[in-house]
Amino acid sequence: MRAAHTVEQVRAAEEVELARLPEGALMQRAATGLAVAIADLLGGVYGRRVLLLVGSGDNGGDALYAGAQLARRGAAVEAILLSEQVHAAGLAALLARHGRVVDTTTATRPDVVVDGIVGIGGRPGLRPNAVEALGLFRDVPVVAVDVPSGVGVDTGELDGPHVVADLTVTFGTHKPCHLVDPAASACGVVDLVGLDLDLPEPPIQALQAADVAVLVPRPDPFAQKYTRGVVGVRAGSPEYTGAAVLTTSGASCGLAGMVRYDGPAADEVRARHPGIVASVGRVQAWVVGPGGGDDVDVLLAACLADGVPVVADAAALPHVEPGHSRLVLTPHAGELASMLGTERDAVEADQLGHVRRAAAHFGCTVLLKGRHTLIADPGGRVRVTTSGVPWLAVAGAGDVLAGVIGALLASGLEPFDAASVGSWLHGAAATVAGGGGPVTPEGVADAVATVVSGLTSGLQD
Ligand SMILES: NC(=O)C1=CN([C@@H]2O[C@H](COP(=O)(O)OP(=O)(O)OC[C@H]3O[C@@H](n4cnc5c(N)ncnc54)[C@H](OP(=O)(O)O)[C@@H]3O)[C@@H](O)[C@H]2O)[C@@H](O)CC1
Ligand SMILES: Nc1ncnc2c1ncn2[C@@H]1O[C@H](COP(=O)(O)OP(=O)(O)O)[C@@H](O)[C@H]1O
Ligand SMILES: [K+]
């Protein structure tokens, strides 16, 4: 599990560690990890040129100490000081290793720019002198210290100028901005330097393959199709039969024992999936909404009346009322904006705030689709999916996702787990299906089984 903690949580843990360790030890550990990461990026140190952008706080201190270590190993290190006051001991260490203080007119073209402007103590946005310094060498790789300066560290928002990093080296734990878009998209590759901090339960997590392998349902030796769970699909309309085919393709990923289809596209659905039963019967979970027609409100009500968990997607979303705790809502930003009475841009700018608000308002699990999909439950927990690839942004991919989550709900996973595991599998399946290239939604649905078998092959008992 990749965990992200808030600034307040990091500060509290840091205080305990600072009291325990000799003065400066924590910063030295951070700076050493940073120097090693910069050396890796440069493919060596001797003779390389490093430009440090140094702000007034400890973030600048990390950069100065890392610069001193690189200078000791033969790098030519220059520093632009963006404040009259910078970390004094860090600056002394750099100068002792023959690092040089320069300004925007005297800086030499570097091989890497190190952003030590501001860290977890920063407010969103950058001051004009920082913007000017960043503009000097636009095509040079940037390594951000802890966070790209200027981003909303706890919110994942971008408000004003900010650093766009190729690599971010963070310390102790991830922060929300490393996982949550749009800020996450400014981090580049994120490298974590461990500091042995004693941290509380993280408010935000990103499942990794090993976590999904544990959560994904596996049939026991005496399993029957009914004990594995039946997922019912109410999707498609005479106009949109494809949505029925794609949603049932997701539901047929193999994670439930049976798929039932109830709708107007039974012939199309059975032509692709002969195993699907096109008659009404008992189910352990419903998926409703993709490609839905005029009767989608009636169908949603019928699904909810069954008392089983329900995935509501697409056309069903505008009809959802608060108060159904075993519901999973799967909007994209535009759909969530309509549900909350706001604009798409507002949702995209503050994805974490909106998905949390929606989960609290509707009292159920809400999955906000995007590059880094967010899943929130009404208790405030959030998971982020980072397994996807941009090729997954293709019409119909959302229908497949709803089907996969429905299968996981039918198998008995709780809504929050079903949504986050389903989303992770969906992203990983796109990687497998495309092999680095384009995907079709049906290809993604087919690849879910391959992903699951890869995950669970090491776990057979
Ligand atoms: N936590 C840990 O475990 C460890 C933490 N460590 C490191 O410490 C860092 C946190 O250091 P920190 O607390 O000194 O805050 P930091 O972010 O450097 O500067 C804040 C100052 O910047 C200013 N300022 C604010 N906004 C601004 C803006 N938009 N643009 C420009 N300037 C702005 C403002 O000062 P002002 O100029 O307004 O007086 C404010 O006081 C952390 O990120 C990590 O790198 C590691 O060394 C060890 C382990
Ligand atoms: N840039 C991206 N990187 C990774 N995944 C993405 C990206 N953009 C969209 N996706 C994913 O693609 C899917 C698109 O679903 P959706 O918008 O509902 O499409 P549709 O309604 O046409 O099926 C979602 O799972 C979403 O998370
Ligand atoms: K920084």
Automatic annotation (TrEMBL):
Biological processes annotated in GO: metabolite repair; nicotinamide nucleotide metabolic process
Residues engaged in binding AMP: 369-373, 398
Note on cofactor: Binds 1 potassium ion per subunit.
Stored Pfam families: Carb_kinase, YjeF_N
PROSITE patterns, alphabetized: YJEF_C_2, YJEF_C_3, YJEF_N
Residues that coordinate or bind (6S)-NADPHX: 58-62, 119-125, 146, 243, 291, 332, 399
Positions of the YjeF C-terminal domain: 208-455
Keyword set includes Lyase: yes
Keyword annotations: ATP-binding, Isomerase, Lyase, Metal-binding, Multifunctional enzyme, NAD, NADP, Nucleotide-binding, Potassium
Molecular functions (GO terms): ADP-dependent NAD(P)H-hydrate dehydratase activity; ATP binding; metal ion binding; NAD(P)HX epimerase activity
Binding site for K(+): 59, 115, 149
Nuclease in keyword set: no
EC number in record: 4.2.1.136, 5.1.99.6
Ranges of residues in domain YjeF N-terminal: 10-205
Reaction(s) this enzyme catalyzes, per UniProt: (6S)-NADHX + ADP = AMP + phosphate + NADH + H(+); (6R)-NADHX = (6S)-NADHX; (6R)-NADPHX = (6S)-NADPHX; (6S)-NADPHX + ADP = AMP + phosphate + NADPH + H(+)
Needed co-factor(s): K(+); Mg(2+)
Subunit-structure text: Homotetramer.
Family as reported in the entry's similarity comment: In the C-terminal section; belongs to the NnrD/CARKD family. In the N-terminal section; belongs to the NnrE/AIBP family.
Record HAMAP family: NADHX_dehydratase, NADHX_epimerase
Function: Catalyzes the epimerization of the S- and R-forms of NAD(P)HX, a damaged form of NAD(P)H that is a result of enzymatic or heat-dependent hydration. This is a prerequisite for the S-specific NAD(P)H-hydrate dehydratase to allow the repair of both epimers of NAD(P)HX.
Annotated PANTHER family: ATP-DEPENDENT (S)-NAD(P)H-HYDRATE DEHYDRATASE (PTHR12592:SF0), ATP-DEPENDENT (S)-NAD(P)H-HYDRATE DEHYDRATASE FAMILY MEMBER (PTHR12592)
Protein name per its UniProtKB record: Bifunctional NAD(P)H-hydrate repair enzyme
Native source organism of the sequence: Nocardioides marmorisolisilvae
